[in-house]
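hey team, just a heads up i'm posting the complex here instead of the shared drive bc the drive is being weird again. everything in one block, sequence lines first with there labels, then the predicted structure for the whole assembly after. its two chains so it's a bit long, scroll down
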Amino acid sequence: MMSVMRFLFFILSSSAFALPADHAQRLERGLKSFQQDVAGILKENCLRCHGGERVKSDFDMATREDLLRGGSHGSVVVPFDAKGSALVQQINHAKEPHMPDDKPKLSAEVIAKITAWIDDGAPYAEPLVAGKKPKRDASVVTDADRQWWSFQPLKKINAKSIDELLLKNAKGMSFNPPADNATLVRRLYLDLTGLPPDSSDQTDLSALTDRLLSSPRYGERWARHWLDVARFAESTGFEQDHDRPFAFHYRDFVIKALNSDMPYDQFVKWQLAGDEYEPQNPLALAATGFLGAGVFPSQITANEVERTRYDAMDDMLSTTSSAMLGLTVGCARCHDHKFDPLPTRDYYAMLSTFTTTTRMNVDVLPDGKVTAAKTTVNAKTNTPVVPGATRMMICGEGYDPIVMHTQGGPFFDKTYVLKRGSPDMKDGEATQSFLQVLSKPGDAKRWQWQPPKDAKTSGRRRSLSNWITDVDQGAGALLARVIVNRLWQHHFGRGLVPTVNDFGKTGTASSQPELLDWLAGQLIANGWKLKPIHKLILSSQAWQQSSQRDAKKEAVDPDNGLFMRFVPQRLEAEAIRDSMLAISGLLDETMFGPGTRDENSKRRSIYFNIKRSQLIGSMVAFDVPEPLVSQGSRPTTTVAPQALILMNSPQARQWAEGLAKRIQPAGDAPKQIAMAYRICFNRDPKPDELATGAEYLKSGASLADYCQVVLGLNELIYVN
Amino acid sequence: MNALSYSRREWLARAGGGFGMLALSSMLEAASNPFAPKVPMQVGGKAKSIIWIFANGGPSHVDTWDYKPELKKQDGKALDGFDPKTGFFPGSVGPLMASPFEFKQHGQSGTWCSDLFPRTAMHVDKMCFIHSCWTGSNNHSPALFKMNTGETRMGYPCVGSWVNYGLGSESDSLPSFVVMSDPLNRGLPKGSAANWGAGFLPSIYQGTWLKPKGAPIDNLAVPASLTPQRQRAQLDLLAKLNRSALAESPIESELNARIESFELAYRMQTAAPEAFDVKGEPEHIQKLYGLNEKHCGHFAAQCLTARRMVERGVRFIQIYSGGMENQQSWDGHNDIAGNHRGFANESDQPVAALIADLEQRGLLDQTLIIWGGEFGRLPISQKSAKPGRDHNPHAFTVWMCGGGVKGGYHHGESDEIGLKAAIDKVSVHDLHATILAAAGLDHERLTFKFQGLDQRLTGVENPKVVKQVFA
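-- predicted structure starts here --
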């Protein structure tokens, strides 16, 4: 502990370090020793793991600056103080881990030389690795750090269309020819609504796009994308995985917001601080479910209370920063971020936003008034006292926190800066401010919102939302880039920035930086409305081109980062099941309200209740991720359980029978087959498909057997 | 997914380690395993399969494998300076308590064992004990998560998922990572599926939980509305139609994989029930495990299933001994004597049989058996109706057997009363690094890119493989 303190003190203010009076003579002596012996000793015994081939425990000895900075366990060498240096204790085997690791103990003579050299100030004549420069000090954010492309203000791009910008970078290639109308209609339906076309008579694509964008099915489809990012679920996780029976309001909020084309900046503001914007508006309150959707233990021992609280706040901050800013801020919890300019102090300054934020239940009364949740009539059904009232789980301040089985309180009044993430190593109280790298220099108070005198909240979350949406001074430019990239991702199967949740240095940079900035600019110019951006993308030649194979393009651009062809995408789990229900004529279009875990439900898959310990089998089989942390993109796997569902599950048989019932009246077998293809694939069967199908039916198979086969065809779950 | 290249994507589709991947023999060669160590492992590397017997609830090391004569001497004395927050119940702190069980030395190694495991004790010269384990939480679910995933928080990939991600599957008709839980209605380990989840790894790497009642795997049986013949005809038609649409598709290999996945599913329908059919074992084997004994038959069936799975190329099998907590599992807060006697009785014969059976089939050397819980228990008593012991995160014993570990070897020590690990301490990350090494995986190279970092099972604190445990 002592050495850690000393270490920090040293970095923060090296001038405060007391130099011995004879330091000049000592350093001179040390330098000689370095050149004669010590450099060689360190190179032979230490450097391989600490700055040579690798840097174990984040401790790098290649330069003096890095040596003195220490490693992940704190200070290693204190100049002029061999006794107080961990290194000396470790090579003497007085402290674990003993050093050098996996080698015999150094000889007494060698240890004496190192000890004397440290007492002489541990000077270097040159780096141990020729030409190596000390690492930057990650606790300070500099102008150089702000040069990273995603931290820059949006560039003004003069362009008229997406296609123009893509063609500029196309390495001489051009778009594939447009896909045929039937393919495009099916692509458009599945993309915007997650359901296949319900009639084949569609020639005006622009009008169809508008119609589908205003369909309630659009919100149900696109809300699911956001719910992955928001790690949304309706249970606590951990040991008991208790249900959160009133958490579904958040899911409904997302659907409603998308359907009404709520401006994205407002969408963000409400999720962070809906209760501070409109404390009496149920929709604004429901939006805060975003913060409360994470896991939380239901049994907390006395010595876990504080750490658990920091975990809960970390979940809010990490999800906010991954989902909205594409930054892995959570990494800075224990140490300054290794790659991005996100110092630990920034992390805790941000974290303190949520000091008093907790999950709470409120009741919305029949007259629309919001009150604290009253005791329930029936503990099992959790029915509120007032008939007609709706109970809602929100996440904010001012009502009674939902309390789990804990040996402590729901929160602490203060948030501290923690060393190495440990509540046992507090380093002063954290006060709210925002990421330096995304703040124009100036007074951080400009974002601060002072709640009215009678408000129940601290104002801190609304302040955060002011900063995060501030395009000119704060994080707004990045916020816009991240969301337009997500839209692009779900239209094309990959983002312009492929690492959709990581716009930092470990992410993959945009293949189309100008296009990204242009789209972000369009979003802001359109009042942050998403539907106009969808329309822009869907009307482009880029999106409407065919998926026709072109070996030359595949060679030049294997990952399709230049978007000169369309790559077929497998539908997600929800869209697969919803398509089956629609095709079989069984789909129940009831919107909103509590979900179910019954696989026999006929409602859209977004209305499955999400209990973390009992995820829906057919969803998981098709790659629905565990809702634990923000997930930007899903993997696409092809495994046997998916096939087993289509072969043997009771649902698959119901779908097949449903489709059989629809095509039965069409007439003879060829007519029935033709109808099945039109319903499923929006096209007529090819002659061989017709012949093969008719032959199969002639052999005595039932129409339902045939329909089950059609539902298993690749074409059904791939968008061409 | 697009962060991964197409070749990686194909690797996932074909060699995915979870339930029912499409194993291609070429994929199983070490050369095609991207995580195999570049230089051959100095130690370990022999285990092709791992059977992890998870003694759920926190078995007491001082009453099982970590003999502490000092406890007998100090029986009844208060433990000065003890932090009452060490365990779960700060208000029930009692004095030091001698083990209620008799300890004797066994085997040529002279290993001290309590009388809880008379049959397993016969194998001590093949077993390797780590007495200096410690963990990061005194509470069941965080400690379970820690032991399974390396983190006390929920949501990280478990050891079985990592092993499957690293090694792929050797079975073309069975899930390659299975989990068996208590079949006697005593609940699931706390945190349930999160203990065998894939976290941020693709979900194909998650463990397949075999349902203890009814059909162990969903959708395996042909529905009553079909017949096997009709289903075969369906699949033939499906393959024919799917194949004719393949040509010229830019994602031909992915579509092909999907055609194959239906055939694999078809094979699984017969292969999986066959693998679970322990009643088909010869009588002497059933007897060896105690399959028809009332006190241990349920656990015998699980151990025997584990052996059958190992024979069929399943990589990772985890069996939970005990249900959720308190008297439902090894969580002996109350009546440690009765609690531990009961769970030892259920598992001693089947575990001993598993060791003997694998050995006689020549499989023990390539199968690592792990036995341990999420933490240990305190040397002091917990005041209750009959004295129990509270949780102890600071010291516990894990043993391993087979898979190339050194028999009769004891690594590390707890202090003289068993309160804290004292000599050659082994963290959970060290233990995980060692398990991966046993399977031939280098824990520093077995990484997965997530949230901008190369994530790994063993974290950033430089854990070490406990090399001494390997022969």
